[in-house]
Amino acid sequence: VFSKSADSMRSRDLFRKKAALDSVAVNFQGSSYTLLKQESGEWQIAGDESFELDPSAMGSFLRQISGLRVEAFVDGAKAKARDFGLEQPELEMVVGMGEGVKHELLVSKTAAQTGEDKFKYFASVSGADSIYQLNSAAAKALMKTKTSLLNKALPFRFDLTEAKSLEYWQEGKSLALEKELSDWKLTGSHKA
Prior knowledge:
Low-confidence stretches: none
Mean pLDDT: 84
Strand order of the largest sheet: 3-2-1-5-6-7-8-4
Largest sheet: 8 strands, antiparallel
Shape: elongated
Number of helices: 2
Strand content: 35-45%
Structural class: mainly beta
Helix content: under 10%
Distance between the termini: 76 Å
Number of strands: 11
């Protein structure tokens, strides 16, 4: 009677309740951070308010989360978390969707047996019995470190051709360079 499969009639939206995101807690590559939406609509890293987030990177990241879609469904007896790498996920995320609604999302990466992609990505969401296969590009777009979301633009502009020296500090160490004609030479490296 029906020419379509049951899966083709299921919603492909991973988060069925569409609401504005208000928080995203991420655990990826051994690093954890929480993004919080401020009353102004801007996003900040909880506990790291001095870091400015890149508006473009954040917009893309948030759209990817809220618009996440399922590529395929794994149901029933086949749906065992351990068989899909979800007992030790690559990514753990808690997505806040307002009014106290939170969804825990786990994403795993397993070696693909065939196809162009080297890996397949599977997900589970708290409150759902299914395991979902995600599009590789969509899954990779979720896997962001805190530093990948930071604004990397310098707060000033300069013409490197006119610079005569440069000193760079990171984690208590500095690196000093001086320009001689058109060549740059290392003049010092020490602890600050």
